[in-house]
Design goal:
The chain is α+β, with helices and mostly antiparallel strands. The protein is 28% helix and 20% strand. Helix 2 packs across helix 3. The protein is globular.
Length: 153
C-alpha cells in the first residue's frame, strides 16, 4: 500500500490567512431566484416549532418544491424575490431574518460555501452580490472551515 505524506489543509487553502467578512444586513443573500433557499426535513421541523405551527402547515404555507428540493417561499419586493422570512420593515434600511435562530444551515453558513471558497475568483464573484465580503474583521481559517464544512441536520 502506498502512503502519502499528510498535507496541511492551510497549504491547499488559498484563504489560509483568513477572509474579511461582516454582515451588513443588506439582505442580498436572502434575495434570489425561486427555489433558492433549501432546507432539510429536520430544519423544516425546527422552523415549524419556532413558528409555533405544525410541520404540515409550515410545508403547505411557507415552502414549495424547487429545482434542488424543498425550498422556502419567496415574496416579490422592490429588491427582487426575497425569502418569505426576510423582514425589511422592522429595521428601516436593514434586512433581517425573522426566524434567525431557526434558519437553515444554508443561511447560517453564507458566504463560506465551498463553491465561494474554491478560488480567489470565486470569492470575488460572491462579493459582487454581497457587500459584506471584504469588509469587517478577518475571519480566521479555523472558523471558515467550521462554516464551510457544516452539514445540515
Amino acid at each position: 500500500m502506498t502512503t502519502y505524506p499528510a498535507v496541511m489543509a492551510s497549504e491547499t487553502e488559498w484563504y489560509a490567512d483568513g477572509l474579511e467578512f461582516e454582515c451588513t444586513l443588506c439582505g442580498a443573500c436572502c434575495t434570489g431566484a425561486p427555489g433558492y433557499v433549501n432546507f432539510t426535513d429536520a430544519e423544516g421541523k425546527r422552523i415549524a416549532r419556532a413558528l409555533g405551527i405544525s410541520a404540515r402547515r409550515f410545508y403547505d404555507e411557507y415552502t414549495h418544491e424547487g429545482p434542488h428540493g424543498r425550498s422556502l417561499n419567496e415574496v416579490q419586493t422592490d429588491e427582487g424575490l426575497d425569502c418569505v422570512f426576510l423582514d425589511r420593515e422592522s429595521m428601516p434600511g436593514k434586512a433581517v431574518c425573522s426566524l434567525y435562530d431557526a434558519r437553515p444551515m444554508q443561511c447560517k453558513t453564507w458566504p463560506f460555501w465551498p463553491e465561494n471558497l474554491k478560488s480567489p475568483q470565486a470569492w470575488a464573484r460572491a462579493a459582487r452580490s454581497c457587500e459584506g465580503i471584504g469588509q469587517g474583521p478577518v475571519i480566521p481559517i479555523e472558523a471558515i472551515r467550521i462554516e464551510r464544512d457544516a452539514t445540515p441536520e
